[in-house]
Please model this.
Amino acid sequence: MKYRTLARTLFRNAEPYLYLLPALLLVGGLLLYSVAHTLAISFTDWDLITPPRFVGLKNYVDAIRDPTFTRSFSNTLVWTGGSLLLPVGGGLLLAVVLERIPGQRVLKTLIYLPAILSTTVVAAIWSYVYTNNGVLNETLRWAGLDALARPWMVFAPTNTLAMIVAASWRSLGPSMALFLVGLQTIPPELIEAAKIDGAGERILFWRIKLPLLRPITAIVVIMSVIGSFMTFDLVWVMTQGGPGRSSETLAVTMYRQAFIMWRMGYAGAVAVILSAIVLVFSIWYLRATLKRSAP
Amino acid sequence: MPRLTVQKRFLGRYLALGLLCLFAFLWVTPLAIVVLSGMKTPIEQSQSGILALPQNAATLFDNIASASELSGIGKGILSSLIYAFVGSMAAVIAASSAAYSIAMLKIRFPFFWFLIIYSGTVFPFQMYLMPLFGLYQTVGLYDTRAGMLLFYSAIAVPFCIFVFRNYFVGLQREVIEAASLDGASSFQTYLRIVLPMAKPAALFLFVTQFSWIWNDFLFGQVLAKSDDVRPIMTSLATLSGTYGKGSIPQQMAGALTASIPTLILFFALQKHFMQGFVVNTAGE
Model:
């Protein structure tokens, strides 16, 4: 009898934690365990067949000295810059123009549409756009601009820039939509008051809208930077990082080292370097969003 | 003078509208090209203009069939439907119950548990690949549907718990307290009161996580290899790009087929997608 009451109290105290268990097991057992393991792998020499051998920081030193890693790193920076310019800057511009246009809903939906597609589908479509007798070259020839037609996926940096345009086709819509949400939160009285004071469109944008959009802008920018640093699918499907590893990003380099060359330690080091950069932005993002959702 | 500026502004607005319409039209042209090219035979595709209408729209089905034979996208669609449906369901259930415990039940260090689970969103996927590949090889989950399902459920949990926690914190506590005074157990309260109240958040999460899992390429590439297990996007990818093995019409027919479920979801639940932004940007 006593045991039963004891068991019941134990259960009552433990019960609230039982609701946590499935989520904790899934996230801890698969995701967080992996993070710790990758960190450990990065200090070893491991080909999956022979047991891993501890080598200290050798993989990190190797990576930093490796010209393919340096190129991959600079390609990733180009991706980051391009994504800030095209989808983020372009999205802001579109949102400001679209805000006061009558057919807003339809236009918004049309521009948003590519974001529904998988990156793999976007890669398939733009492979056709950029291939030798593809959409872009045929259109250029049709317009009499033969001189501009070229093999888009063969030479660096054209291949990376062309892929950034393809990625922007997908990501412009969401950033535009976020900016539109932000613009709606600006009180109309504020805009009216500024107009009465004689503020033109330009002053209205730089002095009032842009400063008030700052929280949204921060979120869009951070998301874009994190996304650029993790660019993988599009590059892998379109060029596999080639030709001659000229269009690799950090994520592609990591994948190639791990699953094509079976250099797990080196791949781990690349993953950890990538994480260190992304984590800075992620934590910034976390703080920006958590602060605003605090009870 | 003022009249002139009004006219000018009027004209400017129509000019902007015209330019925007042109831009939006060009923006969706690639989608039209996918549909048109998917309906042509390879010879027709190489000889006709890009925007020329196909001779026989039914060619689309031949292209889908031959693309499927080449890459296994038919099997991929079935697998991905299972992964996306069951995976996002499982994540919604696991995350909502955990968020219930964190936001409404008496546990110690609720914020610590939240951060542990939510931290699954801050790492790049590259941190997960090698250990999962190794683990799955050792325990026999590599290239199995069960393994894929388990992973997709796990990867969706952190974002779901973020949304549910926000949602629950904003709910009226009195309702929960009244229920427990009425003698309802915490599980009954979760099932009968909390879950029904969380329906909008659950629906939004189901749709976004379904789309995410459906659109995934990377984890299908790393954790599976056979046509029976590989998700749709990983199968589709073998057709296109520099190293693709499909003809242009096959690639486009495949791309079109692979996009249909998420397009249907988008148009059916467009309102929820747009609502999603509000939730997404954290309690705007």
Remarks:
- Residues 276-284 of chain B have pLDDT under 50 and may be disordered.
